[in-house]
């Protein structure tokens, strides 16, 4: 009896947990399944759950029409570029605020966050004009810069909350040993806060990959990432469900796989100081 | 394009340098409709023949319009060839933002274009947009359903006829809606359709002083008819159905009638896309006794070149000349099937035996529908604007969007007809006032 | 190293971030502010000149303005309510022993990786479509008539889509927080006869306080600026039923091309956002930076 109850409980939780998980995952699963159907099957009603033919036709057509690989590379460059440069800028800032706080630190931090609250649409025309005169329209550096600016507050904040949890005396001690600020950062702080740093990088990669407002407004062909590519498949004429599903799958699968592989690292640091 | 030092600096930091634009590479920004997707496919021929490389930016219509507006108004010159409709062509040509397309070779044969289509893209007789299709409105209907209900489509149906038929053939148990009409809000979606119905009932947007007339009797009548017929015979979720959605509904056999763009005729007869290819019939846009001349709208999708494009203008012209030529129309016919040949643009297409053979059920009707529209006199009363289905002022896009939204709200039942017309009237007046139309 | 030099190093380290954000935010903000006092219409170059406060007046008297504010609040509030409540429940659920927990958790977090445009397109076309969507099919199976989600419940539909995207984030944060909960303390409470509800109210929820703050703050930042989901699904309609503040500004700027009025709208949005930010500082500042 005593050993049965936990088992029963576990079984119930398993059932409930998996039911919820499948429900939440269903839209993605459905998209992937639909991408292998023919267009007619894709809108069949009542829906055909399992593709009958497992056709790859939609993928071929999407590839033929939109040079998927170029957009993919742009997405990779944009995500990695903005993340690496962002970390180089954000780590020193977070270190400074966490270990050498000034009276203004809290305000600076909140000011940084508040910059994210300005609706991007409001700044679109000014930014477009600035980009135009700087020759940054449809360039990777341009789009990387704007995505970087957009995500920097989140990076700084996330790193800051993580650094805060590291006892300051450890850094203090190594400083007593005569280590320079640089050494302190690289040899002590970073190894200790590796989970937080990894998590920040991953979150930023995800946010940059999925950024869809600036990429759509400021790139055309040369620098357009996957989030711009998907706009070609939004309500075209005729039957498009299967092609839309194929394009969607192509756009989300890379980041989904990265997210899944690295989810342990992502989760470990994704606390924003919520866990003491 | 000029590159700033800043851009280069960041580029080096990233380890990537964007390739320099070559004069022989042109960027085409286009809407993701069927004709353009075919053009993209076939343009490999053009690339091989001329050595000019084409880069395509294919976008959903609203996104495209937003991008083009920002690009052309700031003279950013990101796109060498753009796809625009009649409204944009006329407006932007008048502002000097589009390049004249009047120096193509003799083979191009400007006179071969259907006059109404060419006129809808020309200012003072000069063409600024080369059409890849032209259109008006037509009534598509299901001959099998009409037969089953024991009714017959008259040669010139009236709006009352249509409403009666719609109710009769509706069979919701079996998923048949008597009629599908655009409900999705937008100046390129429900608004032009409603505008055309208003015009058929003798109404107009503005009087000669640019005072809005949205609370006038024809608007009330048109909307009453529209809301009533959609309630009794329209599909579920009609307020989100635009052209594309209705095309899917009709071709999958869920609509008894559909009043929409003539360009669709070929697709509906194509068994690859349509399940009703055997049973679709064609009738003119419905009329009333208030304006027997009403005949739908005039519109075209065209290719144009912004004046901000200089380096690539020659290559861009070369492409447009090819993509809207007789030779191209023939190429589409041979490769993709003559049903899909560019509709409503060239008389020679309609004269071609191959086209006549497959397009016989609709070709004459489409040609008649397009030719019947007179955009310079779209209404019964005298008005200060031209355009059938749209108004050739910069503000129309804003007006059409908001009025369309209001109509959609009435369609869902969230608002009453009176509220909607009243709010629209106030909104239009406010916008026109701000744009300076009422200054003494 | 002296304290003075340390401070200098700290300021130096902070400088690039602050500089970049100043350039990246203040320059567009200043341009926007300037434009908000000018007549500037993209499609009407003839208009121009100093506009005084008329852009602000025009934006504030827009019939859609009040509703856009209400919708923005409903959108943020609705998504927060669903994701916080749902996230805590899911966090509790996935903290329990179960078979294949790691795998199930992977499925739960997946929506967070999907780009907003894609999720909006998928929900609109394949789930909520009254003719071909899965929801319509489920309704039919249950003997109900299909719900016209986007036409009749536009704001609710958008709330659902956005909540689906953010629920994984909330779940993850709460789950991490729950895992740090002292299990002995829980056990002790159980021994003392505290029921599950008591434990939730007196032990678990207080423990989650900081996590709830974080979720609210992070999500508010992103949801205040929701745009793509509305653009793709309802275009703000029918009427203004799903127009939020960013979408209204977008309509001004790129559908009406009235950059002057749109800039005024953007400035108003910044002011409102800062009011929210002040509240957020009060709420989060106490909890997080202390």
Automatic annotation (TrEMBL), chain A:
Primary location recorded for the protein, binned into one broad class: membrane
Subcellular location as annotated: Cell membrane
InterPro entries: BP-dep_ABC_trans_perm (IPR050901), MetI-like (IPR000515), MetI-like_sf (IPR035906)
Membrane topology summary: Multi-pass membrane protein
TM region positions: 12-33, 76-96, 108-131, 143-163, 184-207, 240-261
Key words, A-Z: Cell membrane, Membrane, Transmembrane, Transmembrane helix, Transport
A GO biological-process term: transmembrane transport
A Pfam family assignment: BPD_transp_1
Record-annotated ABC transmembrane type-1 domain positions: 72-262
GO cellular component: plasma membrane
SUPFAM superfamilies with a match to the protein in the record: MetI-like
Family: Belongs to the binding-protein-dependent transport system permease family.
Name recorded for this polypeptide: Mannitol ABC transporter permease
From TrEMBL, chain B:
Coiled coil regions, renumbered to chain: none
Signal peptide segment: 1-23
Subcellular location: Periplasm
Family matches, as InterPro entries: Bact_solute-bd_prot1 (IPR050490), SBP (IPR006059)
Family under the similarity heading: Belongs to the bacterial solute-binding protein 1 family.
The name this protein goes by in its record: Sorbitol/mannitol transport system substrate-binding protein
The organism of origin for this protein: Aquamicrobium defluvii
The organism's place on the tree of life at top rank: Bacteria
Listed GO CC annotations: periplasmic space
Location, primary (coarse class): periplasm
UniProt keyword annotation of Hydrolase present: no
UniProt keyword annotation of Calcium present: no
UniProtKB/TrEMBL annotation, chain C:
Signal peptide boundaries: none
Record-annotated ABC transmembrane type-1 domain positions: 69-280
BP terms from Gene Ontology: transmembrane transport
Subcellular localization(s) per the UniProt record: Cell membrane
GO cellular component: plasma membrane
Principal subcellular localization: membrane
Keywords assigned: Cell membrane, Membrane, Transmembrane, Transmembrane helix, Transport
Family: Belongs to the binding-protein-dependent transport system permease family.
Protein name as catalogued: Sorbitol ABC transporter membrane protein /mannitol ABC transporter membrane protein
Annotated source species: Aquamicrobium defluvii
């Amino acid at each position: 009896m005593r050993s049965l109850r936990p088992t029963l409980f576990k079984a119930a939780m398993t059932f409930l947990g998996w039911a919820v998980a499948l429900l939440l995952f269903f839209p993605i699963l459905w998209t992937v399944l639909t991408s292998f159907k023919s267009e007619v099957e894709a809108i069949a009603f009542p829906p055909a759950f399992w593709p009958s033919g497992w056709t790859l036709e939609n993928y071929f057509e999407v590839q033929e029409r939109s040079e998927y690989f170029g957009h993919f590379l742009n997405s990779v460059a944009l995500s990695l570029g903005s993340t690496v440069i962002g970390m180089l800028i954000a780590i020193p800032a977070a270190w400074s605020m966490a270990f050498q706080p000034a009276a203004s630190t809290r305000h600076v931090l909140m000011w940084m966050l508040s910059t994210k609250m300005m609706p991007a649409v409001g700044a679109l025309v000014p930014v477009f004009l600035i980009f135009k005169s700087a020759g940054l329209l449809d360039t990777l550096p341009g789009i990387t810069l704007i995505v970087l600016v957009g995500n920097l507050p989140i990076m700084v904040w996330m790193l800051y909350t993580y650094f805060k949890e590291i006892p300051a005396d450890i850094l203090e001690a190594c400083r007593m040993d005569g280590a320079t600020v640089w050494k302190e950062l690289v040899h002590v702080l970073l190894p200790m806060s590796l989970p937080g740093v990894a998590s920040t990088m991953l979150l930023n990669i995800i946010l940059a990959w999925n950024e869809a407002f600036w990429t759509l407004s400021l790139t055309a062909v040369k620098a357009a990432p996957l989030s711009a590519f998907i706009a070609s498949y939004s309500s075209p004429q005729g039957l498009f469900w299967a092609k839309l599903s194929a394009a969607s799958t192509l756009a989300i699968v890379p980041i989904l796989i990265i997210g899944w592989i690295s989810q342990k690292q992502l989760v470990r640091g994704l606390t924003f100081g919520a866990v003491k | 394009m000029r590159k700033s030092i800043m851009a280069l600096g960041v580029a080096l930091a990233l380890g990537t340098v964007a390739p320099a634009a070559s004069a022989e590479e042109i960027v085409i920004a286009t809407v993701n409709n069927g004709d353009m997707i075919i053009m993209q496919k076939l343009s490999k021929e053009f690339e091989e023949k001329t050595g000019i490389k084409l880069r395509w930016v294919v976008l959903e219509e609203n996104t495209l319009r937003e991008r083009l507006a920002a690009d052309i108004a700031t003279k950013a010159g990101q796109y060498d060839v753009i796809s625009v409709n009649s409204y944009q062509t006329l407006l932007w040509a008048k502002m000097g933002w589009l390049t004249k397309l009047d120096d193509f070779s003799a083979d191009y044969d400007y006179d071969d274009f259907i006059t109404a289509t060419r006129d809808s893209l020309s200012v003072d007789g000069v063409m600024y947009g080369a059409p890849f299709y032209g259109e008006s409105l037509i009534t598509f209907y299901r001959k099998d359903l009409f037969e089953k209900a024991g009714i017959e489509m008259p040669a010139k149906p009236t709006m009352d006829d249509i409403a009666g038929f719609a109710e009769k053939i509706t069979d919701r148990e079996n998923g048949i809606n008597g009629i599908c009409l655009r409900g999705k809000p937008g100046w390129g979606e429900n608004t032009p359709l409603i505008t055309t119905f208003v015009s058929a009932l003798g109404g107009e947007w503005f009087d000669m002083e640019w005072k809005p007339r949205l609370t006038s009797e024809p608007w009330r009548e048109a909307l009453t008819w529209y809301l009533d017929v959609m309630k009794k015979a329209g599909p579920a979720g009609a307020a989100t159905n635009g052209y594309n959605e209705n095309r899917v509904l009709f071709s999958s056999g869920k609509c008894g009638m559909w009043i929409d763009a003539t360009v669709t005729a070929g697709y509906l007869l194509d068994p690859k896309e349509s399940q009703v290819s055997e049973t679709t019939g064609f009738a003119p846009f419905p009329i009333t006794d208030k304006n027997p001349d009403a005949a739908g709208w005039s519109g075209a999708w065209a290719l144009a070149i912004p004046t901000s494009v200089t380096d690539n203008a020659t290559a861009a012209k070369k492409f447009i000349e090819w993509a809207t030529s007789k030779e191209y129309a023939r190429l589409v016919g041979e490769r993709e099937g003559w049903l899909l040949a560019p509709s409503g643009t060239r008389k020679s297409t309609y004269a071609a035996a191959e086209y006549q053979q497959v397009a016989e059920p609709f070709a004459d009707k489409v040609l008649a529908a397009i030719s019947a529209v007179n955009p310079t006199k779209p209404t019964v009363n005298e008005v200060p604007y031209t355009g059938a289905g749209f108004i050739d002022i910069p503000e129309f896009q804003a007006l059409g969007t908001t009025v369309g939204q209001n109509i959609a709200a009435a369609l869902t039942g969230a608002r009453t007809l009176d509220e909607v017309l009243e709010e629209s009237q106030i909104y239009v007046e406010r916008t026109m006032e701000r744009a300076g139309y009422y200054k003494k | 190293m002296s304290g003075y030099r340390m401070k200098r190093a700290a300021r130096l380290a902070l400088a690039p971030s602050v500089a970049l954000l100043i350039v990246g935010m203040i320059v567009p903000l200043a341009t926007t502010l300037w434009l908000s006092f000018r007549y500037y219409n993209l499609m009407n170059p003839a208009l121009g000149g100093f506009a005084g406060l008329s852009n602000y007046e025009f934006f504030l008297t827009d019939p859609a303005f009040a509703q856009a504010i209400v919708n923005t609040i409903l959108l943020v509030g609705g998504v927060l309510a669903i994701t916080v409540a749902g996230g805590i429940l899911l966090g509790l659920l996935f903290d329990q022993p179960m078979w294949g927990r790691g795998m199930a958790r992977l499925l739960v977090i997946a929506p967070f990786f999907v780009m907003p445009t894609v999720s909006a397109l998928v929900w609109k076309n394949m789930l909520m479509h009254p003719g071909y969507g899965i929801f319509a099919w489920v309704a039919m199976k249950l003997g109900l008539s299909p719900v016209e989600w986007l036409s009749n419940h536009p704001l609710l539909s958008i709330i659902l889509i956005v909540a689906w995207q953010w629920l994984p984030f909330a779940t993850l944060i709460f789950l991490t927080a729950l895992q740090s909960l002292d299990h002995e303390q829980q056990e002790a409470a159980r021994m003392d006869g505290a029921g599950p509800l008591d434990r939730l109210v007196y032990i678990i929820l207080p423990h989650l306080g900081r996590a709830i703050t974080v979720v609210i703050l992070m999500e508010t930042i992103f949801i205040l600026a929701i745009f793509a989901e509305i653009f793709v699904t309802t275009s703000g309609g029918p009427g203004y039923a799903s127009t939020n503040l960013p979408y209204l500004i977008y309509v001004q700027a790129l559908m009406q091309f009235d950059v002057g009025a749109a800039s005024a709208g953007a400035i108003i949005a910044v002011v409102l956002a800062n009011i929210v930010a002040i509240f957020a500082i009060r709420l989060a500042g106490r909890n997080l930076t202390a």
